[in-house]
């Protein structure tokens, strides 16, 4: 089965200098870069997802802002598709499915941010469409959350999401295991 790499929202907004810094984003981006390099060297197509808002008053990902730009370390090269999304799910109101079909992708590998939002949405949607999905957990990042007076550290948010993916949506691996396979 032909594999495709989906790189989700690794944008400047998530860096320490951005408006929504994520826990462990630097390590996730470094690992994502290794996976992107591998894909480029082995002919696996790379699909970049970029979230942006047309609303100039949006708190994050304002179209044309530095925060909305893909981080230089994982920036698209050559003819790699960039799918711009306005929703959490990268398949919603975009041509992601059409792009995957154009490259005859039948198996998806996912890296990016945020584990509990856009990674969650794309993994579940892809699985619902019948794609086998592999999530590279150490090439993803998230942040601390708060619910009903409970503080949930990013590591626990991330672990809960990865456990859910592994339980019912796909395979979860570390980058080293994926690259050595």
In words, what does this structure look like?
- With 181 residues, the protein is of the alpha/beta class.
- It has one domain (3-180): 3-Layer(aba) Sandwich (Rossmann fold), CATH 3.40.50.
- The chain has helices at 25-42, 96-102, 115-128, 154-168, 175-180; strands at 3-8, 46-51, 82-85, 107-113, 133-141, 145-147, 150-152, 171-173.
- A 6-stranded parallel β-sheet has the order 3-2-1-4-5-8. A two-stranded antiparallel sheet has the order 6-7.
- A hairpin with a 2-residue loop joins strand 6 and strand 7 (150-152).
- Helix 3 (115-128) packs parallel to helix 4 (154-168).
- The protein is globular, with a radius of gyration of 15 Å.
- Keywords: Hydrolase.
- Residues 5-145 form the Isochorismatase-like domain.
- This is Cysteine hydrolase family protein.
- Its EC number is 3.-.-.-.
Number of strands: 8
Helix share, percent: 25-40%
Average pLDDT score: 97
- Ranges with pLDDT <50 over ≥5 residues? none
Strand content: 15-25%
**Subunit organisation of the chains:** single chain
Main pleated sheet: 6 strands, parallel
CATH topology-level name: Rossmann fold
CATH-level-2 architecture:
3-Layer(aba) Sandwich
Q: In what order do the strands lie side by side in the largest sheet?
A: 3-2-1-4-5-8
Please indicate the count of domains: 1
Q: How many alpha or pi helices?
A: 5
| The CATH fourth-level homologous superfamily | Isochorismatase-like
H-E string = EHEEHEHEEEHEH
Separation of termini? 15 Å
CATH class descriptor: Alpha Beta
Q: Structural class of the secondary elements?
A: alpha/beta
Radius of gyration based on Cα positions: 15 Å
Mass-distribution shape: globular
């Amino acid at each position: 089965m032909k594999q495709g790499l989906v790189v989700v929202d690794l944008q400047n907004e998530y860096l320490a200098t951005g408006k929504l810094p994520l826990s462990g984003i630097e390590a996730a981006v470094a690992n994502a870069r290794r996976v992107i390099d591998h894909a480029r060297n082995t002919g696996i197509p790379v699909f970049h997802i970029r979230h942006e808002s047309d609303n100039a008053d949006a708190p994050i990902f304002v179209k044309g802002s530095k925060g909305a730009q893909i981080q230089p370390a994982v920036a698209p090269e050559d003819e790699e598709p960039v799918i711009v999304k306005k929703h959490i799910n990268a398949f919603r109101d975009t041509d992601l499915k059409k792009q995957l079909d154009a490259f005859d992708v039948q198996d998806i590998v996912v890296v990016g941010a945020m584990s509990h939002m856009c990674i969650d949405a794309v993994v579940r949607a892809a699985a619902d469409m019948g794609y086998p999905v592999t999530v590279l957990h150490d090439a993803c990042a998230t942040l601390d959350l708060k619910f009903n007076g409970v503080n949930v550290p990013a590591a626990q948010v991330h672990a809960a999401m990865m456990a859910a993916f592994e339980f019912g949506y796909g395979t979860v691996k570390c980058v080293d295991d994926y690259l050595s396979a």
